Structure formats: structure tokens, C-alpha cells
Amino acid sequence: MRSILLWVSENDWCRETLPSFGFVKKAVRRFMPGEELVDALREAQQLLTQHRIPSLVTFLGENVADANEARAVADHYVEAVEAIKEKGIDAEISLKPTHLGLDLGAEVAFENISRVTRAAAEAGSWVWVDMEYSRYVDPTLDLYRAIRANHENFGICLQAYLHRTPADVESLIPLGPGIRLVKGAYAEPPDVALPDKKDVDQAFYDLSVRMLQPDALEAGLRLGVATHDGALVRRIASWADRAGVAKDGYEVQMLYGIATDLQRTLAREGRGIRVLISYGKHWFPWYVRRLAERPANVGFVLKSMLPG
Ligand SMILES: Cc1cc2nc3c(=O)[nH]c(=O)nc-3n(C[C@H](O)[C@H](O)[C@H](O)COP(=O)(O)OP(=O)(O)OC[C@H]3O[C@@H](n4cnc5c(N)ncnc54)[C@H](O)[C@@H]3O)c2cc1C
Questions:
Q1: Looking at the domain assignment, is residue 298 inside a domain?
Q2: Does residue 17 fall inside a structural domain?
Q3: 306, exposed or middle or buried, with CB in 10 Å at 0-12, 13-18, 19+?
Q4: Residue 264 designated active-site
Q5: What residue ranges of the chain have pLDDT lower than 70?
Q6: pLDDT at res. 281
Q7: Is the CB of 131 under 6 A from ligand 1?
Q8: Structural domain span for residue 184
Q9: Quick one: DSSP state of residue 162?
């Protein structure tokens, strides 16, 4: 089921046709409060005032093939940073390098992402760069290093399922980076990524513990452990508590609409927690990756076909 869904997420016909079906639109609402920035900011405000949970916002889209479009995405993010500042919400930006033009060349993405990061620095906020397919890891790391040289408010996502990630972590630690660790959402071959879920879970734990060691924290590493896996969150928290890491010395990051009870419990316990809220019209491939993470979600799509 996971492979079929990941194939659907990449198929051009599915990308163009399925999002127009009403029942698919209805089902996506579970993970996305709406298609506009105002919808995401309304929800960010509510999370903050009702549950004291800060957020990340992301404007959905990927693999932009036109330089003007990539520039317009950067313009949009700069406006988003300004709107967030005006509202006084604690919300950071999370963006995909191929949405900002990485397929058009490293310079295009560098220029666009630098502009958003500069605006965020002026607003006292952060930008996080997502990690896409494994073929993008080297160019994304190069981009990260180049932009991080000018801006400290810049984090990168690393995927625990990749065999290369422990080495990438070691090479980044001296920079005092922002690192968001995820399990990994794309279809990758076994010579590139761990095929067994239990190995990915263990790699996630080991990498989290590595990034919470004194040398990494003293270098200035800001860690986001991005998972909804409650057992893993508790295992990492229990290690961190024993090691004397402050409860808010790192952050759990989760997606809007998933494991909501756990998000609120962590906030009540005074632990670092941040929720990523997505918006935008190009939600289809992103949404199908969410279905692939938990094929039981397909049941929600089928239910949303029912009237009422
Ligand atoms: C803030 C954030 C940013 C991310 N950014 C990236 C990125 O840049 N690149 C990338 O490759 N991946 C990214 N991901 C996705 C990540 O790689 C995983 O695919 C995703 O988080 C699912 O894995 P899990 O860690 O939640 O654990 P799993 O073991 O897959 O799930 C644990 C439990 O969480 C719940 N759960 C998990 N996913 C869902 C879902 N979709 N719907 C309902 N319940 C669910 C279920 O109860 C499940 O049993 C991101 C995830 C988060 C939270």
C-alpha cells in the first residue's frame, strides 16, 4: 500500500486529476486548515493562545520549473514573515528547496532562500529547509552551508532512514546548526535508505541522542525531533531527562492534525513542541505522502466520500 501511494504521489495524471474531486478536498482538511496563508495563521494563533504551542508554516509546492514562479514563492514567504511579525505569533518558516528553484540551479535556490532567511532574521525568526528525495541531499547540504555562513537563524531537515545521515550529522555539528530529524517520507532503494522500520526507529533514537550530547549542544545545535511516534518521543525524553538536558533544550515537531493529544500533553509538561501547519493549492503529492505514512488514513478518504 505504501509503495502504491508513493507512486500515486509522483504520477502526473493523479496529480492533475485527483485534487479536483470534492471527496479528496474534504479529506485533506484533516491535515490542513485551508489553502490560504490566513487559514494557517489563524490556526497558529489558536494553537498559541489555547495550548501555548508555537508553529511552523509551510506553503505547499515542489519541483518548480520556472524561475519567475520560484521568485514569486520567495516573495510570498517574505510577505508571510512580515504577516507573522505583524500578528506577533511565534511561527517559523519551513520550505522545500525545489519549491524555491533548486531544479533550476543552486544559484536560483540560494538567491531565493537567502532572501526569505534575511527577512526572517530581521523579524527575529527562523527558516527551516526540508529534505526531499535522496538525489537532493548533497545540493541541499551545500545550500545549507552557504546560507548558514551568513545567517544563524537557519535549520535543515535530515532523514534518519538514509545510510549517510550519521556522517552528515557529524559534519554539521561544528557549525552549531539547526537540525530537524525526521524518519524520511520518500520511496528510496535499500542501498540508499534502511528498508526496515525498526532499524529506522533505532537510527532516529541514536541520532537524537548523538545530537543531545554536550559537545553538540555547546556548539549551538538546535534540535527538532520531528515525529508522531509517541514511544520514540518518550524514549528520547527519558534519555534527555536522565542526561540533564532541559525539557525545552530541544523541540518535538509534529504535523497539524496528527497526534494532537500528544502535542498538547507535551506542551502541558513544559517540553519543547512546535506544530507544522501547511497551506497552499499544490497539496496533492504532500497529502498522498501523509496517507502513505499511515495507510489506515485511506479509510478517512473513503469515509469522506459519504455524504454529510
Ligand atoms: C514537522 C515535520 C516535518 C517533516 N519534514 C520532512 C521532510 O522535510 N522530509 C521528509 O522526508 N519527511 C519529513 N517529514 C515526514 C517524516 O519523514 C515521516 O514520514 C512522518 O513524520 C511519519 O513518521 P513518524 O515519525 O511520525 O513515525 P511513524 O512510525 O510513521 O508513525 C508513528 C505513529 O504516528 C502516527 N502517524 C504518523 N504519520 C501519520 C499520518 N500521516 N497520519 C496519521 N497518523 C500518523 C501513527 O499513530 C503512527 O503509528 C516531516 C515530519 C514532521 C512531523
A1: no
A2: no
A3: exposed
A4: no
A5: 300-308
A6: 87
A7: yes
A8: 33-282
A9: B
